[in-house]
Amino acid sequence: GDYIWIEPVSRREFDVAIGARVVSAEGRRIQVQDDDSQEQWLTPERRIKAMHPTSVQGVEDMISLGDLHEAGILRNLLIRYNENLIYTYTGSILVAVNPYQILPIYTVDQIKLYRGKKIGELPPHIFAIGDSCYNNMRRFKQNQCIVISGESGAGKTESTKLILQYLAAISGKHSWIEQQILEANPILEAFGNAKTIRNDNSSRFGKYIDIHFTKEGVIEGACIEQYLLEKSRIVSQGADERNYHVFYCMLAGMTREERQKLELTDASQYKYLTGGGSITCEGRDDAREFADIRSAMKVLMFSDSEVWEILKILAAILHMGNVKFKGKVIDNLDASEIPDTTFLVRVARFLGVDVRAVKEAFTTRTIFAQGETVVSHLSHSQATDVRDAFVKGIYGRLFIWIVRKVNAAIFKPKATHRTSIGVLDIFGFENFKTNSFEQFCINYANENLQQFFVQHIFKLEQEEYNSENINWQHIEFVDNQDTLDLIAIKQLNIMALIDEESKFPKGTDQTMLQKLHKQQSHHKQYLKPKSDLNASFGINHFAGVVFYDTRGFLEKNRDTFSADLLQLIHNTSNKFLQHLFVEDIGMGSETRKRAPTLSAQFKKSLDMLMKTLLSCQPFFIRCIKPNEFKKPMLFDRELCCRQLRYSGMMETIRIRRAGYPIRHTFREFVERYRFLINGCPPAHKVDCHAATSKICHQVLGRADYQMGHTKVFLKDAHDLFLEQERDRVLTKKITILQRCVRGWYYRRRVGTPLSEQL
Predict the structure, then answer these.
(1) Which residues bind ATP (predicted)?
(2) Model-level pTM greater than 0.90?
C-alpha cells in the first residue's frame, strides 16, 4: 500500500522518477504498479525512495509539495489531470493542462462562485486569475496584464477567450461594448487561425487585447494589436494541415446564390485549400461557424457591402490558386503562359482589373533602368512565385484592415481615469521537421516572453530581497539573455545580418547563411551543421535546439510587392481592394526600397509589446500540452516534463516557496490593515514601520513574514488571512455603526429627548 518513487534506468534527457504503489512483497523483491498502470517486480538493486504524503493525493498549490523535484511536479499534474482537474497553482501562477475536451466548469454559477475571491480560497481556476487581475487593477489603480504562454496546441487561445468572458461577466453592465469585444474573437480566429498537426485551432498570428475600464471598473472599450500573420499558409500547407478557417467556412456556409455569384464550388476543388491533403477538421462545423462569423461582423459594424467585398477578395484568392502556368521558351529564354484563362477571367472580374493586365503582371516583369523600360519574361516557377506573392500581399493587408475595422468599433478615446487589463495570446514555441522564417520570428518572440517571465519572477524578486535586506537563500536560475543577444541585440546579430543581406539586390539565402556561419559559429548558442551542403543554422533556445532551413528566408523577410502588381492595384475599379493598398500606392519606388523588412517591423512591434508588459503588473498562465495527438485523458510524461523544465517551473516553485510573493510598503499596509488592532492612527500620523510591525505581531503572531527597509514581505497565505480578517473587522464595525444610527433614528421618531438619546 505504500507509495514510492522509482528512479529511471535510462539516461534520456527527459526521463524522471515515476510514482508507484507497492502491491506485494516476495522475499527481497517487491511488486509495484506505476503511474502508467504498468506492473513490475523490483529487485534491491533498483533505486527507490519513499514518496512524501503530499505527492500521494496531489495538491492544489505546488508550493506545498514535499517532493520538490520534477517528478513530484509531474505526478501532481498527472493525478489531477486524470481527475479532470486541469488547473494547478504555483503561488499566483496558474498551470493549465489542455484537456482536449469540453469540461462543465465554466458556467454562470462558476463565475459567481469565483467573483471577489482571492487566489487560494477556492480550487484552482482560470476565473480566479481573471478575478485577482481585475481586483488588483481596481485596488491599486494600476494596469494589469495576463501573459498566456505555452507551446502550440497547449490551449492558449481557449484560455484567452475564458479570461475575456470572465472579465465581461464581472465588470457589471453587460453592455453592447462587452458583446462587441467578445465577438471580435470569432472573426480574428476565422482569418488568423488554422488546423495544424499539433492544434486544430492554432493561432497563426499573435494578439494583445488591451481591455479598458472606467474608474468604476466598467469595461468602456478595447484595442487589439496583431503580430506577424503567417502568410505562407495561404499558398501552401504542411501535410494534414489546412489553410485559414475562413475559406472552408465560407464554402460550407454561403447560400447557393452567393456561391453562384462568386463561381465557387466545394473546398476539394481549390489548390490553395488542398495542399495539406486535409479539408475537414474533426470537431469543427464550418457551416455553423460561418454563420457565427457573419453574426459577429454585424455586431462589429461591418456593413453588408463590406462583408460582400471581403467574400469577393477571398473568392478571387481561391480562383487565383487554380491559375495554371505552362513553361515555354522565347528567344532562348525561359518564359511562361496561361493556356486556360477560365480562372484568370474570374480573378480579373472580382478584383476589378483587365484580364490582359493580370496575365502580363503574372508572366512578365517590367524593369526601369536609366530612363528606359525593359520587359522580361518570367519562367514557370517565377510566374508561380509572383502569383503567390500577390495572394499573400492581398490577404495580409485584408487581415490588417479587419483588425482596424474591429478596433474602430471597440476602441474609445482615452478617458482621464482609465485603467486596463491586457491579455497576450501569442504563438507558442515551435519546432517542426522543417522550420522557416516564420518559426524563427515566433521563437524569437517566445525568447522575449521567457526573459520577461525570468525578469519578473527571478531577477526582480532577487534584487528586491537584496535591496530590502531580506534574509533568504539565493536561488540559481536559467537566464536566456545570451540567446536574445545572439538573435537581435548584440552587434552583428542574426536579425541584423539577415536584414543586411535582404537589402543587397544580389543577396541570396546562400550568401546570408555564409555570413551567419562566419560571424556566429563561435557563439555557444549558435549551431552550424556538420555538412556544408546543409542549408540551415541552429539556435539553442530556452525550449531546446531548433534548426532553421534558410531557403526562402530573404524573400519572406523582404516581403516585397512588385511594381507591376502595384500598378495593377492602382488601375483597379475595385475601391475596396484599392483601399487595402492605399499606403503602398502612395509610396514612391525609392521609398519602397527603403521600407523596413518584415523582421525589422516585427522586432519594433515586439519591442513595443515588451515595453507595455513591463509597465503592467503581470499574471502568468502556463499552458501545458499533455500529448501530441490532441486526445483527452492521455498524458505523455516526457513531453510534459520538457515543457515544465523549459517553462522555468522548477525554479519558480523554489523561489516562490522560499520567498515572499506578497509585499506592501509600510504606509500602504498601515492604511489598509490598521483596523485590525486597537488604537492605530492613520498612516500620516504614525511611524509606519513600527505600526506595521505591531499589526503583524498581533495579527500574524510568529508566522514567517519579514520586515524590509521600506516594505513588509508576506506569504500568499498571510495576505489571504489579513484580507479575511479585514472583511470580518470592518463588517463588525459597520454593524455597530448601523445599530447606533438606527437606534438614534427610531428614538427620534418616538420623541425621546436629545439628552436621553446621548
Answers:
(1) 150-157
(2) no
